[in-house]
Specification:
The chain is α/β, with parallel strands linked by helices and 688 residues long. 32% of the residues lie in helices and 18% in strands. It has an eight-stranded parallel β-barrel with strand order 3-4-5-8-9-10-11-12, surrounded by six helices. A five-stranded parallel beta sheet has the order 15-14-13-16-27, with helices on both faces. A five-stranded parallel beta sheet has the order 18-25-19-20-21. β22 and β23 form a beta hairpin. α7 crosses α19 and α13 runs parallel beside α22. The longest helix is centred in the first third of the chain and has 20 residues. It is globular.
């Protein structure tokens, strides 16, 4: 049975033991591995970037690895908001970052890279993308030039220059990225077709990397920590195998130039391949942990690793069984940067769980900022708190209507503020649309968003009254000082010229409220998970399915990693996917339905004869209660958007005769997503 720290002393917990890496003592065995959250400004780690890493240091982490990765040369254009390690201007910003992280007891390192072919030529300074050979990466689509002798000489020097800057910026160490980037593009037969001294034999394929390591070590001296994050098996018939990967590890160690290996398995040149390296929910937990343990045993060298190690029990197992020296809980710290502090205090049960949604990484890969699906403070540390401060004023009576993610978060934050809170929920269970989405086996972990908040409300003494369809009289009977309407939304139909009443919604399919037909057409012009999950469920029922979208590709509201399991399911089950097409009308055709399809690009139409038409067009607000309460409220429901954006308290009082302040949040305002609903609740309630 797995022991928690409530049943073991901190001195006995494997996760809390210090670890000596060269001269550096890390205070425990937990780290956050390198990733680029897209928080940089002009390629520099300014305040937003700094505060994100400082929060993890406050939360007790031993080591935060910054950048994913910082680029060493301008011909490695930033694909993910990368830091510019090739610029001298970065040094003072790094120094402030490293000083602040270290002041909270954590160590800090940075990952360096040349992206090689894993970027685009039409970014940054519009320089040609570089690779060992003329082999295009499917994910980023650029056709690279083959590195010339002068490119190699230049980049070796640029790696050393960048390492020297990182040392000057106060970093405890650096690691080089070598999975899918330029260094290991030279290692892999899939990407290295050269016939010179850098191609062919393993000695030749490693030559560039060994030159980089030697140049860097000479520049930074013998005491500075240098590591390598690498694929030790590309798990690919075109790439290098486990045996060759292990030999690469041995040769790197034998140089004497590196101090740790940060091991991963797989290749990342497509979304499908990347999802096996960085698994999402519905996929195996910690899939590469045993493999990494084999590398550690074979090399007898310090080994780090991260890949969907989302919970403390798995992390503790990894250290206790000797599979790792440092365990990376990277997405887990995006969900809760205070994991170690809670473990030390015997409060593991209060850790906000990573539910594996991978909203964070999908946003990065789609060119946005990393955000956690249910921690809206991550990446917003300048304005949003991870720890809710208790109100200095008189406790208030807060009534929250609706126990979906928005309402539960509003209740949690208000209770942490010290207010008296009651939640009124129309259904017999909390969760709203999250509960509906979690009915799909592959996405059942999403219920953690709900379960964690319910546990927090129980801890805080908040009552949830189920089966209560609240009307204005019910709310007013509670004599509220603040009313938060989080009643969510209901499915709405797309604009059809006729036949809306003949369609069913994605909710009907997900809830099992409607039998699935034999021939089904799903029309999704929302482009998120509800329509995709309904389509996946229909496909798995063995129905013949056509998925129709008016977009250039299906499901544009989700990123590549979440796209993969849907695309795989549709491919395996022969689903017909039709893009650039709109559902215009639905008509009866005997005992079947005629779905009339058209396009934004012309006037031609075509008809599909099916048994069932399923539509997904987002939700319309369930806002009747809000409008019934509006005129009696102090602010008439008005929100000061400037204050909201800046993280200041709401002070609107347009109706002095009003008896309470009124806000509506989440889908009760408009159809959005889980993160938006939780962010609404946090930023309105944190100062109330």
């Amino acid at each position: 049975m797995e022991l928690t720290t409530s049943a073991m002393s901190a001195a006995a917990d494997p996760l809390l033991q210090p670890y000596r890496l060269k001269h550096l003592t890390l205070r425990n065995r937990v780290m956050s591995t390198a990733h680029e959250p897209f928080y940089s400004e002009d390629g520099l780690p300014k305040d937003r970037y700094r505060l994100y890493h400082v929060e993890k240091a406050k939360g007790g982490i031993a080591l935060t690895m910054t950048a994913g990765s910082a680029i060493v040369a301008p011909d490695s254009p930033p694909a993910f908001g990368n830091l510019h390690a090739y610029r001298d201007e970065i040094v003072p910003w790094l120094k402030r970052l490293t000083d602040d992280v270290k002041s909270h007891g954590a160590a800090i390192m940075i990952q360096l890279t040349h992206l090689g072919r894993r970027t685009g030529w039409n970014r940054g300074d519009w320089l040609p993308v570089l690779a060992p050979s003329l082999v295009r990466e499917p994910a980023h689509r650029a056709f690279p030039k083959a590195a010339e002798d002068w490119d190699i000489e230049r980049i070796v020097t640029q790696y050393a220059d960048a390492a020297e800057r990182m040392q000057a910026g106060g970093m405890d160490g650096i690691e080089f990225e070598a999975y899918g980037h330029l260094l290991d593009q030279f290692w892999s037969p899939a990407t290295n077709r050269r016939e010179d001294e850098y191609g062919g034999s393993l000695d030749n394929r490693l030559r560039f990397s060994l030159r980089v390591l030697a140049a860097v070590r000479q520049r930074v001296g013998p005491d500075f920590i240098v590591g390598m994050r690498l694929a030790a098996d590309e798990d690919w018939d075109q790439g290098f195998s486990k045996s060759e990967g292990l030999e690469i590890c041995r040769r790197l160690v034998a140089t004497g130039h590196i101090d740790f290996l940060n091991v991963i398995r797989g290749h990342i040149d497509s979304d499908a391949a990347l999802s096996r390296v960085i698994p999402i929910h519905g996929m195996r937990s910690a899939p590469h942990l045993d493999f990494t343990g084999e590398i550690r045993a074979a090399t007898r060298f310090p080994v780090f690793h991260a890949a969907r190690i989302a919970d403390v029990a798995t992390a503790r197992h990894a250290i206790r069984e000797g599979k790792l020296d440092m365990v990376g809980m990277t997405r887990a710290h995006i969900a809760d940067p205070h994991i170690v502090t809670k473990v030390k205090a015997g409060r593991e049960h209060t850790i906000r769980p990573c539910v594996g949604a991978t909203y964070c990484l999908d946003r990065i890969y789609e060119g946005g900022e990393a955000l956690c699906i249910h921690n809206a403070a991550t990446g917003r540390e300048a304005t949003m708190p991870h720890v809710i401060a208790r109100s200095a004023g008189k406790p208030r009576r807060v009534v929250v209507v609706g126990a979906g993610p928005a309402g539960l978060e509003a209740a949690r934050v208000s209770a942490e503020r010290g207010h008296g809170v009651v939640v009124l929920e129309a259904l017999s269970q909390a969760g709203g649309q999250v509960r509906l989405l979690s009915l799909s086996p592959r996405r059942r972990e999403l219920i953690g968003i709900v379960d964690w908040r319910l546990a927090e409300l129980e801890r805080l003494g908040v009552a949830v009254r189920y089966d209560t369809l609240a009307e204005s009289a019910d709310v007013l009977a509670e004599q509220p000082d603040l009313v938060i309407v989080a009643t969510g939304g209901l499915p709405q139909a797309p604009p059809l010229t006729e036949g809306v009443e003949l369609t069913v919604t994605s909710w009907d399919i997900l809830a099992g409220a409607m039998a699935i037909g034999r021939d089904v057409l799903v029309y999704d012009d929302n482009g998120g998970h509800p329509g995709m999950q309904a389509a996946e469920k229909i496909a798995e029922s063995s129905a013949r399915l056509e998925l129709v979208s008016p977009e250039r590709f299906f499901a544009p509201e989700m990123g590549g990693l979440n796209h993969v399991p849907y695309a795989r399911a549709f491919n395996e089950r022969g689903v017909r996917v039709t893009i650039n097409t709109r559902l215009m009308a639905v008509r009866r055709e005997g005992n079947r339905l005629a779905a009339v399809l058209g396009s934004d690009y012309g006037t031609a139409t075509e008809t599909r004869i099916v048994d069932q038409v399923v539509v997904e067009h987002g939700t319309r607000p369930a806002d009747e209660l809000y409008h019934a309460l509006k005129d009696s409220s102090l602010n008439r429901g008005e929100v000061d958007y400037a204050a909201l954006i800046e993280g200041r308290p709401q002070t609107v009082a347009t109706n002095p005769a009003g008896g309470y302040r009124l806000w509506r949040i989440g889908d009760a305002v408009s159809s959005r997503n889980v993160h938006a609903a939780i962010y609404d609740a946090l930023r309105l309630c944190k100062d109330a």
